[in-house]
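ping. complex inputs:
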Amino acid sequence: MAFVDYYKILGLEKNATEEDVKKAYRKLARKYHPDLNPHDKNANKTFQQINEANEVLSDPEKRKKYDQYGENWKHGDEYEKARQAQEQAYSGRHGGRTHTGEAFSEGDFSDFFQSMFGGAQGTGRGRTSAYRGEDYNAELHLNLTDAYTTHQQVITVNDKKIRITIAAGVEDGQTIRLKGHGGAGVNNGPNGDLYITFKINNNTSFNRVGNDLYATVPVDLYTAVLGGDITIDTLSGKIKLKVKHETQNGTKIRLKGKGFPVYKSEGHFGDLYITYNVKIPTNLTSRQKELFTELSKM
Amino acid sequence: MEIDQYIPADEFCINCNVEHSFVMSLHHSGLIEITTVEQKSFIRIDQLRDVEKFARLHYELDINLEGIEAIHHLLKKMKAIQEEVALLRSRLYIYESNMDSME
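pong. complex structure:
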């Protein structure tokens, strides 16, 4: 536990007046205040030191004790006890002094401070506020296929690894809050929160609108005219579809529950809308042309 | 107005030991929005952290309203720049990782 030179921290001489202390504190606090230095751990640490120095030097009693023992603070309590014992011996019926406890805010003060002034909490003369840590914002890039299933990811924010569970159905631009994973609070203030915004890259041929998916599927002319089976891809795998005979180009069908999962609603899915794109055959043989001509004349 | 999204300005001032006139001056300078219903002033809950911050700047650091406005503006700018730096860093990291795997 090292001695802390509070005068040095505030850039003051030992004979500084209360007004000097106040001015020096204000000047440094304006420079290192956590509200003015978000995400800056060094500034926050310096601010704590400034705060601590101010708590001691702006309080005449604490300053007196600090000045009295100075670098001999380790022996301060022993001196104090010895002095009190002496006082008691000669004080007669008035008895010893009663310490009502230090009016002080504990906060994140140094071991030196805790040792010298104790950790008692009180009203404090000054205003030693607890500051909530800063909120952090982060972006997480996901493929659409990743957003289809609930999965876990480990992300690194400010050198800290955080494991998060991403629920299926998360949307592009959606933000989630992880409470307490932001910047550390100051003077026992709560930690800030971490806000993660999802950026979803569509790595599929589907268009996603809310929980519904849209796709265009090619169908050959003969299947469109005569009907038949086709196999299409969905995000949950391949499925077989029956195409009705005489299906027109641009026909839309809805596959219920084959769309995207509904966020945080297990077992619920949007729909998949398929638009048929009937392909006209090319490079016809002369026989095929003949048959088409025959058909056209029927 | 959804009551649970607002807090009476008087209640905030009493709890945080802040003068009502200070909150109103924040409103008049456009730093926060105050909603008045039946002659009572309300602060939106999502603005509370900002109001607390402004109060700290004012009462602890003796910064006047004009200074708070300037600080607020610069902090917003700084935050946007920090976010952009973080985004560019992560892109650079991906780019460098890809380059490493190609080598």
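Chain B has a mean pLDDT of 87.
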